[in-house]
Write a structure and sequence with these properties.
Layout (H helix, E strand, L loop, with lengths): L8 E12 L6 H4 L5 E7 L9 E11 L8 E5 L5 E7 L6 E13 L10
Antiparallel strand pairs: 1-6, 2-5, 3-6, 4-5
């Protein structure tokens, strides 16, 4: 559990298309090559400390002839953003993926000052 010791809490959210490999015959669709995609997501405003980030699939277009395997994670979370990482493996073919995310954490205020 992350305990937030602040009277100001920020909530940021967004949605992004991570990739669309179907049109161009990309690696996720052909099942050859890299089986992971990562994209840096920058927050519009800086958090005071790394926030809690939740990511979810909002669109996944998969080949129905193969097993559906997917792993989605928020990695390298900082005050300014995070890496959204989608992974698959074996013979799974992925045409496209869109994710949505939400970040919750403490934010600073212009009236904040450090007395230590």
């Amino acid at each position: 559990m992350q305990v937030i010791n602040s009277s100001r809490i920020g909530i940021a959210q967004g949605s992004v298309d991570l990739f669309s490999d179907f049109e161009e015959g990309g690696e996720m669709w052909t099942g050859e090559g890299s089986r992971a995609r990562s994209q840096w997501i920058a927050f519009d405003q800086r958090f005071a400390a790394p926030p809690v980030v939740h990511v979810s699939l909002t669109l996944w277009d998969m080949d129905s002839a193969h097993n559906v395997r997917a792993d989605l994670a928020a990695e390298n979370i900082s005050e300014t953003g995070f890496d959204a990482v989608f992974r698959t493996w074996k013979d799974t073919k992925v045409a496209r993926v869109r994710i949505s995310w939400i970040a919750v954490g403490a934010v600073t205020d212009d009236d904040d000052w450090d007395v230590t």
